[in-house]
Structure formats: C-alpha cells, structure tokens
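Annex B. Sample input.
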Amino acid sequence: MSSSRPASRKPISMLLVTLVLGLGVAQLAFAAYPMTISHELGETRLEKQPERVIVFDFGALDTLDALGVEVIGLPKTLVPAYLSKYNDARYANVGSLQEPDWERIYALKPDLILISSRQSSLYAEFEAIAPTVYVGVDTARYMESFAENVTLLGRIFGKEEEVEEKLAAIEEKVAQIREKAPAAGRALVVLANDGKVSAYGPGSRYGLIHDDLGFAPADANIVSSTHGQSISFEYILQQDPDILFVIDRTAAIGGQSSAQAIIENRLVQLTKAYENDKIVYLEPEVWYLSGGGLVSVSRMLDQVSAALD
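Annex B, continued. Sample output.
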C-alpha cells in the first residue's frame, strides 16, 4: 500500500464524532436494548446488556478489564503476562485461541462471545451457542478500527464516557509520536521466529508503525501478508534502516527468547540502526498475542515513543 497513508489518517477524536452521529446520541449514551450490531462476520442481536461474557481476543479482554467489565471465561493458553489475573480459577478456561473447548463454552451459558481473526472460521459454531461479535482489528486501518471496536464495547456495556476519555489520551500519544517520527529516519519492522525473519511494511499486520505513527518505511514494496515477507539478513543490510523494530514470536508463544542473538549478527551490525543503538525489541506478548485493546495499544505506543527519545 502507498506510504502516503499517514496523511489521510483520521484522528480518533474525529472518528468518535462520526460514531456518535452514526449510532445516534441517545443510543450511544444509554446503550439502548435490544441492540443489533453489524460486524465483519455478520449481524448480532443483543436483547439485553450481556452479563456472562466469554472473550477469545486478548485486546478485547484488556479493554473490558480497563472498563471494569467482568468476564466468565477465556482461553488460558498463552495469556499475556499483563493479563495474568485471568489465570485465576474463578475465570473458566475455554480452550486455546485456535481450539475452543466447545463443551465448556456451552456449559457456561454465555450471553456474549467476543472473537477475532484466529477464530473467524468458527463463527457459525460460536453463534450456535450464543450471540457472537467479531472484534478483530483491521490492520489496514489499525487505529481507526481499534477505536471503532473499543467504542462498540463501550456502547454494549454502557461505558461510553470512559472509552472517550481513554481514546483521547491515546490520540495524544499518537500525535506526539507522529510529530517526532519523521526525524527518526527510515524504519523496518521484522518478526523473528526460530531463526527465521519476516518483514512487515505499510498496510500490514504491523503497518500502524508506518500508516498511523508516521515512520517512513525502509522498503515501501514489502508484500503485505499475515506472516510477513520472508527476508534474509542481507536484505536488512541492503535496506539499512535507521531504526529496526523487532518482535520476538518465539518469546511470545512461551519459547526461549532468542531474537537478539539472531538479529544482531555481523551483517545487521553494519546497519545504521545497530550503529546508532536503534534496534528496538518490542514487547512480544502485546504485539503478537494481543494488541487492539485500550491497555495493549497504550503500551505499544509507549514502547514506540521510548524508541524516539
């Protein structure tokens, strides 16, 4: 996608106004029920405010946690450390992100299930048990999609004012980063996984670094795909980024962290990013497992901001 995207980015504050007008002030303010929700996988009708919520998206979970909304179940495989409270036995284990425990979910009698991309192919099975809403982030327009999702959750649970305040604080962080990003030079985002490396550019899973935060891409022609574009260390040297953002997938899924040993080899040591101490290791769990939540997005922005100091 074109690297000109940042110029057309819609501020979260403007998006909130659009959402208020689109949903209707009365409906947004009072969370009127019954409520019909349109989302990427279909339409879901809620007869009343949900009280028994199962969450399969860690970003949505951290949003609900920030808003003080209780859940009854979640997949307890690979729960990010910042959400470790949900490992407590009072929260039911409903399987893994990709393998739900259907019997357990059915027995819990949820009145709302929240899913994202890892479960999208199972939407019909979830919907057969309880109203199900897709809250995955559209990475091609990350910050707008994120704001839409958390605004929706605020609407469902009557937490609109809290969401608006938290989004305003996040928008301020975005503005501060965008002001500084051009001076940081050309950036490259890579995912390290068991000795292999893939790159992500504008419009990709981690494209928000370019699209929303304003970093010029070291390579504007990276092929956008879920798993990134497979690259070599010679490629990194050839692109010679001023700043190199690294996400360690191995560490994110519970393996022994190895990204630094893999990345900082003799070739990468010849880049400007290494010479200027601008190889930035992003928090793996937040960037790979969660993201898209009020807490995780704020943490993501803080990490990128710290790289500019």
